[in-house]
Amino acid sequence: MFYSFIRWVVRLLVLLINGNTHYENKEALPDGPYVLVGPHRTWWDPIFFALAGSPRKFSFMAKEELFKNPILRWILDHANAFGVNRANPGPSAIKIPVRTLKEGKLAVMIFPSGSRYTEQLKGGAVLIAKLAKVPIVPAVYQGPVKFSHIFLRKRITVRFGDPITVPAGRVTDALTAQIGEQMQRSFDAIDKAIDPTFKYVPDQKKYLKEKEAGKVK
């Protein structure tokens, strides 16, 4: 109930402050649960992915530090989030989303790019999809990367790509690299389908700050 209520509130807020959102190729979404993957371009693109994927609800990873605050923990728990140590993810980072997917009600959202843990997250996405026996669905957000620009009613587009099936067999480094390349090709193709002239330009202040911290190269 909390998730549905918050999603309804956020949808209304987005309509009021932007009113120029477009969700494309939803027919590509599987009928059952799946692992949603996308390039992480802003802190709010997960919100738009969740809105675009409605009525399916999502579970997602959050930094375990956030769960130390009791108020935030209550909100995150009711928003289907689960805590992960980003520097040293343990077995729960795989077991929890696999169990969630097998229950059949929620999809799982993972961002295997835009992070210094990109390779681990790619491997995690592949392993989770493999163990849960669900497809991987690539998705892309195109829109403002500066929060204030959302209020300028600039166009926001979320587009889904065709599902990627993890083949049978062991999840090897070669398979992870293969699926990772397939994900990237999908991201590029989706970007081009939305806008052939698109070029991602990150928020420069955020980019420089993350570069100084060693999070990006």
From TrEMBL:
InterPro entries: Plipid/glycerol_acylTrfase (IPR002123). Residues 34-144 form the Phospholipid/glycerol acyltransferase domain. One of its GO terms (molecular function) is acyltransferase activity. The keyword Acyltransferase applies. Keywords: Acyltransferase, Transferase. The keyword Acyltransferase applies. Pfam families: Acyltransferase. It comes from the Bacteria. SMART domains: PlsC (SM00563). PANTHER family: 1-ACYL-SN-GLYCEROL-3-PHOSPHATE ACYLTRANSFERASE. This is Lysophospholipid acyltransferase family protein. It comes from Lacticaseibacillus jixianensis. The lineage of its organism: Bacteria, Bacillati, Bacillota, Bacilli, Lactobacillales.
